[in-house]
Amino acid sequence: TWNISHSGDRVWARTIIINNGTINKTTNTKTTFVNNCQAGSFTNNGSISLDAGETYQFENNTILNGSFINNGNLIIASTTSFGSSLLYSGTGPITITSLGTLTLNQAMSLNTTMLVNNGTIDCNFNTIFNTPILTNTGLIKGTGTKTYPSGTTFNSSSNSTLEGSLHTIAIGAILNIENINMKNNTALTVDGIMNWTGNVDIHNSCDI
Predict the structure, then answer these.
(1) How far apart are CA 73 and CA 43, in angstroms?
(2) What pairing do the DSSP bridges indicate for beta strands 47-50 and 61-64?
């Protein structure tokens, strides 16, 4: 068991971490795992938990399997995979920065507020974004279907992009779009509400 209880923000740099046990964070600080000189990585096969007010930021190559309970803040600023055996739970927000790509390697229902801040979500399997608020200024793609169910408000702006297979705005969901690109014959089905504001250009071409 690894109890992280530092009093201030801390950085783990150029460190290869493989967790087969339990990691608990017990203080309201940020722990960052950094990939300096391409020498760091983080692999979880055990159990990780985040409580309210606690933050993990992954800046190294990260593979998450095992169990991850997120009731704090998860920031993805690297190539990060939710593995096929990951048991993910909790309602803490997920932020994907411009340096981050989150790859989902299993069918998932994500029950958390999400910010795709110029980053990328790659859904290799069917994904339900069962989130109160999903804000996309980056790219959501993948071969799996993407469903935004009732109760979800999907804000897509700042030249955001949707790619891959079907995106469905279900009955009871709201899509607010300002600028959006659709590429590679992506299909968008809107059974809920779609609000257009400002200048809206929807493209469906592979050459943009």
Answers:
(1) 18
(2) unpaired
The order of strands in the sheet holding 180-182 is 16-19, 41-44, 61-64, 79-82, 101-104, 120-123, 139-141, 160-162, 180-182
Task: Name the β-bridge partners of 188.
Answer: 167
Q: What are the tens digits of pLDDT across the range 155-203?
A: 987 778 888 889 999 999 999 987 777 776 688 899 999 998 766 666 6
Q: Give the Cα separation of 51 and 106 in Å (integer).
A: 24
What secondary structure letter does DSSP report for 126? -
Cβ pair 46, 66 in contact under 8 A: yes
> How many H-runs (helices) and E-runs (strands) does the chain carry?
0, 29
Answer whether 8's CB lies under 8 Å from 30's CB. no
Which pLDDT does position 199 carry in this prediction?
Answer: 61
